[in-house]
Amino acid sequence: MPDGLECKPGWFFKITKNKKNTMSVKYHTFVENKKNYTIDYKFTSKKSGTTEVGASVAVSADIGVKILGSIKAEIQASAKKSWTSEIGIETYGKVKAKSTVKGNYGISKENVYGYKYYRGSACQKSNKQHMTAWAPYREGWVVS
What we know:
By secondary structure, the protein is mainly β. It contains 1 helix and 9 strands. The chain is 10% helix and 56% strand. A hairpin with a 5-residue loop joins β8 (99-119) and β9 (125-143). The relative contact order is 0.34.
């Protein structure tokens, strides 16, 4: 036991790297302007879906909570266990002549790399498994 501290046995998760965030897209749309002048567009989300905390290897509910806690503590304070996207959220703008605007609506996921491990009563680590983990943290449109 380091420094006389007692270790509580259990599964833990350690973040070692922040990875590129991704989006769990719930609704895709586009507008193509074949005209010789600019036109206006408005996208409205028509579908919803739920994104949950997850990992690239199987994890128990307890480890999922610990992953979420690690992401909240180290990376993104607004990370959630699950997030359901809304219907009816709008964005708008202009489409230049002879061009296309694409819109993706969904939930952004904070992605991290790390490992889960079991810590015994003598503070030893065992059963270490490296993995990518994620948690939803915001939703919205990505227009390109």
